[in-house]
Amino acid sequence: MEKRVRQQIPDHRIWKIYGTEYKEITKTILAAADLAGRIGDRQARIGIKPNLVVASPAQLGGTTHPEVVAGIIEYLQENGFSRIIVAEGSWVGDRTADAFDYCGYNALSEKYGVPLVDTQKEKWHEKDCAGMKLNITNIVDRIDFLINVPVMKGHCQTRMTCALKNMKGLIPNSEKSRFHRLGLHKPIAHLQKGIHQDFIVVDHICGDLDFEEGGNPVVRNCVMAATDPVLVDAYACHLMQYSVNEVPYVRMAEKLGVGTADLSRAEIIRLNTGSEEDELPRQDRILEVSYAVEEVDSCSACYGNLVHALTRLREEGLLDKLTDRIAIGQGMQGRTGRLGVGRCTENFDTCIMGCPPEPEKIYRELKEYIVKNMQ
Ligand code: SF4
Fold first, then answer.
1. pLDDT digits 0-9 by tens, 205-234
2. pLDDT per residue over 166-202, tens digit each?
3. CA 178 to centroid of ligand 1, rounded, Å
């Protein structure tokens, strides 16, 4: 179907605003960036894509604050736009319906009359994304202007996640698992050629710096707006003290012509100043436990749950007592060994079953395994 809005050419501006009235600061930043003027056609079908990776409240640092999305909706409705939807799909292992409910999006939908689309239930089709065939949910074709609303936060496998990786919520669950088998970074980069994000509103309020599912929020009370997802992600790397080269999909997307990772070209427009310093502490909590793991193509939920369990065991002084490495990931299917986590390692002597297994279960069974082998 023909799009009502011409594809936006990204520029190099990044707007920033600080405050604790999240709905109001979001409306202010959208007015400063002239979002209404960018969309133009009041009949345009506008899609808002938050990050609801799990059913966890935004204050824990894993999901998009509903107040930010409320600010976007109010701004759009006050400017004469009425064809608005919110589309999202949680990660494999969690139900989007639970996240919509628990994270306050059902209430949002009712208050503003904006439908929610659960992409876990959407039909999908294959699309050629710059030479890589990827499966994309059909809702993408029914959107004229896509507003991406990621949380800037850490990720147990890619170190950082922000604008580019958030598009994974618009592919079916089966494809999310396949992305891990394809190496994760390359398909994330290519996906940008199949789904064009027209505008980005970054929730930089309190993202967790280690885990995409949240749990350890680091408060910054900031909202950012931009049009170039590569530039935004390069800027997020800078704020989290990673080099862009440590997050390979950013450079890959740049090479595909999605945007620029050259921060010297960024124009940072500060609408006010925050009380917090800009840069975040670099976190290496994942690296501290990853030596105990042999990972091949694991899903984020599985690996993240394992890291949570290992962090607890390390704090209790037990991780050093583990003599076997823990196998995890889709690449372990059909293989054998001593210790594995997840259904993919069901042929291992000891398998902590689940797809993905819960962190508490992994922690409990690993602890039993370590104690038994110490005797
Ligand atoms: S068991 Fe395998 S398929 Fe299931 S979540 Fe873990 S890695 Fe993914």
1. 999 998 899 888 999 999 999 999 999 999
2. 999 999 999 999 999 999 999 999 999 999 999 999 9
3. 11
C-beta of residue 119 within 8 angstroms of C-beta of residue 88: yes
C-beta of 296 in contact with ligand 1 (< 6 A): no
List the domains of the chain with CATH numbers: 13-270 (3.40.50.11440), 285-374 (no CATH)
Backbone angles phi, psi at 146, to 5 degrees: -105, 125
Q: Say yes or no: CB of residue 50 within 6 Å of ligand 1.
A: no
Atom in ligand 1 nearest the alpha carbon of residue 355: 4
Q: What predicted TM-score, i.e. pTM, was given to this entire model?
A: 0.87
Q: Indicate whether residue 299 lines ligand 1 (CB < 6 A).
A: yes
Å from CA of 286 to ligand 1 middle: 19
Contact 89, 55 (CB under 8 A): no
Best probe residue, ligand 1, of 94, 156, 174, 298 (max atoms within 8 Å of C-beta): 298
Share of the chain above pLDDT 90, in %: 84
Q: What residue type is assigned to position 275 of the chain?
A: S
CB 192 within 8 A of CB 335: no
Q: Are 345 and 337 in contact (CB under 8 A)?
A: yes
Region for 221 from its dihedrals, namely left if φ exceeds 0, alpha if ψ lies in -120 to 50, beta otherwise: left
